[in-house]
Prior knowledge:
- 2 copies of one chain form a homodimer.
- Chain A is an alpha+beta fold.
- Chain A has a domain at about 35-55 and about 85-200: Trna Endonuclease, Chain: A, domain 1, CATH 3.40.1350.10.
- Helices cover about 30% and strands about 30% of the residues of chain A.
- Chain A is built from 6 helices and 12 strands.
- A 6-stranded mixed β-sheet of chain A has the order 3-6-7-9-10-12, with helices on both faces.
- In chain A, helix 3 (about 120-130) packs across helix 4 (about 150-160).
- The longest helix of chain A is centred in the N-terminal third of the chain and has 14 residues, at about 35-50.
- Chain A is globular, with a radius of gyration of 18 Å.
- Chain A starts with a strand and ends with a helix.
- Chains A and B meet through strand 1, strand 5, strand 6, strand 7 and helix 3 of A and strand 1, strand 5, strand 6, strand 7 and helix 3 of B.
- Strand 5 of chain A pairs antiparallel with strand 5 (about 75-80) of chain B.
Amino acid sequence: MAFHYPNGRRFVPQAMEEKKSPLKKISFSNRGKTLEDDLNETNQYYLAHGIAVIHKKPTPIQIVDVHYPKRSAAVIKEAYFKQASTTDYNGVYKGKYIDFEAKETKNSSSFPLKNFHDHQIEHMKHIVQHDGIAFVIIRFSAMDDIYLMSSEQLSFYWKRMKEGGRKSITLQEVESSSRKITLGFQPRIDYIKVVDSLIAENF
Amino acid sequence: MAFHYPNGRRFVPQAMEEKKSPLKKISFSNRGKTLEDDLNETNQYYLAHGIAVIHKKPTPIQIVDVHYPKRSAAVIKEAYFKQASTTDYNGVYKGKYIDFEAKETKNSSSFPLKNFHDHQIEHMKHIVQHDGIAFVIIRFSAMDDIYLMSSEQLSFYWKRMKEGGRKSITLQEVESSSRKITLGFQPRIDYIKVVDSLIAENF
Lengths: 203, 203
């Protein structure tokens, strides 16, 4: 029996999501962790080593009902998931404002744009207007390939979709318009190296 | 009958919190809004006028139980408030990373340090180490006086408390070590003006 999120996406239980791919191209691949887990570990590494301070924002929740039991913690009894108006991750690197969203797909030939929504694209445009650094980290989980795409590039594909074009970015397009992030042990997803080259080009 | 938050603070219903002060020194004072409301309006103004992109982070929640009803939105049935590991507000201004916490007190002679916690003080130190701009906005609700105090100054008073000193910052100390923010109509709390002078001094 299939369950669905409010946005229509199918609910996939953890056990199914963590199914390993039979492909094992590099030693650190497919340890069964989500992109979010890997990024949280990476951000902890950056913090502990004085490289950058980047945190994931809490999930936005609409709280409807809270109980205040005597002598114990307040309990939220009814609440709903809200759509985020910004991206999930932000922070500071060498004084610069860093802002990104991270998404993964099981699709191995293209990256579906339904992973993002208008508010996030708008938010990233604002960040760039204010000289911040905005991008998305996308993962093809079948191959465990991870790319960093600038918000300008993403906006290009988003606009193409809005004008009636395809609803995804082909793997070939991703390869030619993004930078691949080599997976490592510590940090797992060393995206700051790519940010360095973005800074070198734009600032 | 008194209810208490997990941290021991008394739960004050909205109606009581919004009680107006009899003092009316300036025209825009005490409209019965919380500091958070005023800052959200201010941040919306900054966004709409292309001045800065600063958002409040969602409240961190520990979700324990979620129901997925057929054909309707997922409902969170049990969740708890978590202590934030960072500050509430962050964003970008002229390419620079901005990070702050906002707190108000009903006390009219001093600002209690229990409004902050160790994680937040540590977080702000990290931000400063990475050349970000970190501060707190504090409001004395009885007088509707609002101040911006740099994280370095706050750390000084925090350290004094940790070493056995007083558990609050006297109003006189706040006045001499912070900058007062003049309240306006739009934006309500124009803290970016003060940030400008911080940048002029430090960067």
